[in-house]
Amino acid sequence: MPVITLQYDDLEKLTGTDKETIINRVPMIGADIERIEDESIDIEFFPDRPDLYSVEGAARAMRGFLDLETGLPEYEVNPSNISISVSEDILRIRPFLGSAVVRGVKFTSSSIKSLMDLQEDLHWGLGRNRKKVSIGVHDLSNVKPPFRYMAVDPSFEFVPLDYTEKMSMTEILEKHPKGTRFAHLVRDFDKYPIILDADDNVLSFPPIINGTLTSVTEKTTDLFIDVTGLGEAVYTALNIVVTALAERGGQIEYVKVIRPDCAELILPDLEPKNRLLTKSEVKTLLGMELSLEEIVKQLERMRFGAEALDEETIEVKIPAYRADILHNYDLIEDIGKGYGYENIKVRIPETYTAGKSHPISLLRSPINEIMVGLGYYEVMPFTLTSEKINFENMRRQKTDDVTYVLHPISEDQTMLRTTLLPNLLEILALNQHRELPQRIFEFGEVVRNEIASQHVAAVSIHPQANFTEVYEVVDAFMREMMLSYEAKESEDPAFLEGRRADIYLRDKKIGVFGEFHPEVISNFTLGYAVVGFELDLTDLID
């Protein structure tokens, strides 16, 4: 889950209250405080709330939660004469485009950083690492509309962000840090996406890198925003970005998107969606009866529009930036947050049973204590994965013990994982903007032949990562678990020959450790040495 750094002075100004009040109340809106610093606070927001991935979005939500400004936020969108045309040949590459203009923004170094962090967190949260959504933010004063979104030959040259010399798009994919990291998103096409202005100046090579011409600085006041991708999440991301900028005083303007396959679009579309919610639904899910007035009040605290239509039904208006409201259950969850779970009266259940810790929990506790003591952070990736991640990226042969998803919603989630290490390497790839070293672990479930087992795995990435480091970690872990083990030569292709070993417990192979093969590191677009281990601890569960 994304961890957002919020500067106190910015947060207090945008929220309208003091930092102590925010620190005390923000966990109740659905967040965990990671750390409290002298000048800032780091907050981990749940991944279903990408609208909170910025100080502007967090402040907007907190104003409602603290009863400082309740109800549906309304944003004025003015007309403009700016348009962007979509060419026919781009539709087979990256077909969805959303655009908007925001004027009159007053930037500081911290607000620019907040905007850039919002981009990157949306790339992860909504965009699946830029595959489904990528965002470009440009200084409008340096380019001339109308704009064009089209496909060009890979030999096309421009000066990419953070560089001073022209590079071809092929060279960018081979040499630029962003290019090498995201090249797989466009490499298989014979032409690459680009956004040009009326004078053929480059705004963006989506989803890879912007042109240096449109870099945002503290002198920037007017912005052109492009969001490209593979589906309608593009429009949600656009709404989140423009409303965040509007919270900072920006004035939103429409952009006309001219497509060859349909009527032109006028974006952004900030009209709220309407849902009908009944009083009985709320009572059934929350387990307590609230009056219509109370339900309306709590919905408005959570920044929805709400109006009672009769004695049973409420019309709810959902802000255009809320991507998480898929069912009335989601509205009722927010009603519970607004009411305050701490305010729900404790009631003795009608049936009584004596509870006890689950055996898996009893095993998890010492594992977590040991790994945290060794300097590793716990993560909880998804259990669903794909054959590419689970096998191909790891240089391992596909096995016949895989449990597949019958109706997958994404090509990234087609099977249940049979190993933990690929998920951990994915997380390292998503956090390359964080400082090194990074050391993470997971105690979690894998499924083989439709049977679940419990594994622990850990990875470490930094320039000096080597076999000795991971051997020491494995040895310390097994010693603390009071397990007598034996290390034998391994043939696992995910690791370097001569720098890998299998782990045996009572003559049974339970795991592997070593230095990852350079090809595995490259497959996960990582730039440094990585070591890791994985153990099957199912037999230790009583």
From TrEMBL:
Catalysed transformations (reactions): tRNA(Phe) + L-phenylalanine + ATP = L-phenylalanyl-tRNA(Phe) + AMP + diphosphate + H(+)
Gene3D superfamilies to which the protein is assigned, alphabetical: 3.30.56.10, Bira Bifunctional Protein, Domain 2, Phenylalanyl-trna Synthetase, Chain B, domain 3
Organism: Methanosarcina flavescens
Entry keyword set: Aminoacyl-tRNA synthetase, ATP-binding, Cytoplasm, Ligase, Magnesium, Metal-binding, Nucleotide-binding, Protein biosynthesis
UniProt entry tagged with the keyword Acetylation: no
E.C. number(s) listed in UniProt: 6.1.1.20
Enzyme class: ligase
Lineage, broadest ranks: Archaea, Methanobacteriati, Methanobacteriota, Stenosarchaea group, Methanomicrobia
Places the protein is found: Cytoplasm
Protein name: Phenylalanine--tRNA ligase beta subunit
Family to which this protein belongs: Belongs to the phenylalanyl-tRNA synthetase beta subunit family. Type 2 subfamily.
Cofactor: Mg(2+)
Example GO BP: phenylalanyl-tRNA aminoacylation
Known partners and oligomeric status: Tetramer of two alpha and two beta subunits.
Any one GO cellular component localisation term in the record: phenylalanine-tRNA ligase complex
One Pfam family of this chain: B3_4
Family matches, as NCBIfam families: pheT_arch (TIGR00471)
Residues of the B5 domain: 270-346
Coiled coil location: none
Binding site for Mg(2+): 324, 330, 333-334
CDD domains for the chain: PheRS_beta_core (cd00769)
Superkingdom of source: Archaea
GO MF: ATP binding; magnesium ion binding; phenylalanine-tRNA ligase activity; RNA binding
